[in-house]
Amino acid sequence: MSEPARSHREHRDTRSRLCQLALELFAEQGYEKTSLREIAEQLGVTKAALYYYFKSKEDIVRSLVEDYFTAIDDLIAWAKDRPRDRETRAELVRRYLDIVADGSEVFKMLQQNQAAVSGLAAAKERGELFRERMDALVALLTGPDAPLADQLRAASCLMAISVGCLHFRDRADDPAQLHDAVLEVALGLVDPIPVP
User: Fold this and answer.
1) Domain tally for the chain?
2) Are residues 24 and 61 in the same domain?
3) Mean pLDDT for all residues in the chain
4) Which H, E and C letters describe the chain, residue by residue?
5) Where in the sequence is the domain holding 103, given as residue range(s)?
6) What is the pLDDT of residues 147-162, one digit of tens each?
7) Are residues 2 and 73 in the same domain?
8) Which of 6, 142, 150, 179 has an alpha carbon 20 to 30 Å from 16's alpha carbon atom?
């Protein structure tokens, strides 16, 4: 592997470890009680090295949310180039479920620290960005100019995934069983929508 490629991978790995550690500390101790110094110490880097990646805790939260939005953007781009049929819709629902399940730790942390993170500059922007993506996914599931009932079914499908992953994750004995149950409910909601 070339030196620039190795350096890029190490940078990405360090950033990923930093985000994961910060996420764990924010969830365990709370956003406000976690300091950048503590994150740096637990990661085994200097505070100056941490600043290379993130200037503030808010930057870390923003990065975690941006990673989630990037995954949804990639899904939207994938679905736009696919045929408008039941198989594509089912695959879109499966992939969205995977994104939400992978991001559930981030949303659990945001929920646990709602008072602290809702005051951050990006909080209002996050809501609007999320709505835009949900509108795009609903349109991909229903087609353009779909009846309101079909749009509601598609939105309910997406919300069922979020609620299932977030609300029931600590209640399910087996993550695979929860995944299958959420998928079954979500596909049941989207299946009655006519293929455009």
Assistant:
1) 2
2) no
3) 88
4) CCHHHHHHHHHHHHHHHHHHHHHHHHHHHCCCCCCHHHHHHHHCCCHHHHHHHCCCHHHHHHHHHHHHHHHHHHHHHHHHCCCCCHHHHHHHHHHHHHHHHHHHHHHHHHHHCHHHHHCCCCHHHHHHHHHHHHHHHHHHHHCCCCCHHHHHHHHHHHHHHHHHHHHCCCCCCCHHHHHHHHHHHHHHHHCCCCCC
5) 57-196
6) 999 999 999 999 999 9
7) no
8) 179
